[in-house]
Amino acid sequence: MEWFKTKYERYETSIWQLFRFGVVGGLGVFVNFVAFIFVGKLLPLVWPSAGYLAGTEVWWNIPFTEFNVRWYHVFSMLSFFVANLFNFQLNRRWTFKSHHSANWFREYFPFLTVGLIAQGVGLLILTALMHQGSPVALPTDIFDDSTGFRTRKYWAQLIMIVCTIPITFLVNKFWTFKAIRTLDETEEAEHPEDIQQEGT
């Protein structure tokens, strides 16, 4: 028991950060998923082709390649930006809070960069789940788009989000918030405008 107590005391901060990150992540999944559905309903009103074949139509052919970007990729990217901003604000103020906070933009752009990297990996997962030639493609006999619960792109998006959560947690913990907030005395003296007391 003493061993477990020692380990808990050593990693208590990280454990609670992981818990809070999980709560924020769960809310972020909800925001991302709702935004994904909303964008998928809204864009076809502006661009009718976005609604063809449940969003699997080609949006843009990548020049000089046989690859393309499909509408569900667009839906995923737009919902990512909404959820990324939501997650950043909540993680900044709650999960990785400290007595020092760097300038908002100074913290957000690394957070966005991390998110974009994870989203890039996620888009590969999303494509693999949606592409019928993929060995891990979601079966169309089950996910036949007959109802919202059986909509293939919804499940693919949800699986993609869950798979990328560990990436964002680890990098944000050890880089985005920690590295930027570890400001030495020289930097504080040279750039006092970058230091804000928490809650201001």
From TrEMBL:
Q: Which InterPro entries match?
A: GtrA_CellWall_Glycosyl, GtrA_DPMS_TM
For this chain, the family text in UniProt reads:
Belongs to the GtrA family.
Name the chain's protein. GtrA family protein
Where, if anywhere, are coiled coils annotated? none
Instruction: Quote the subcellular location field of this record.
Output: Membrane
Which keywords does the record carry? Membrane, Transmembrane, Transmembrane helix
The record ties this protein, via Pfam families, to:
GtrA_DPMS_TM
Q: Which residues form the signal peptide?
A: none
What are the TM regions of this chain, as residue ranges? 21-43, 69-88, 108-130, 154-171
Membrane topology category: Multi-pass membrane protein
For biological process, the GO terms are:
polysaccharide biosynthetic process
Boundaries of every GtrA/DPMS transmembrane domain copy: 20-177
Gene Ontology CC: one annotated term? plasma membrane
The highest taxon in the source lineage is: Bacteria
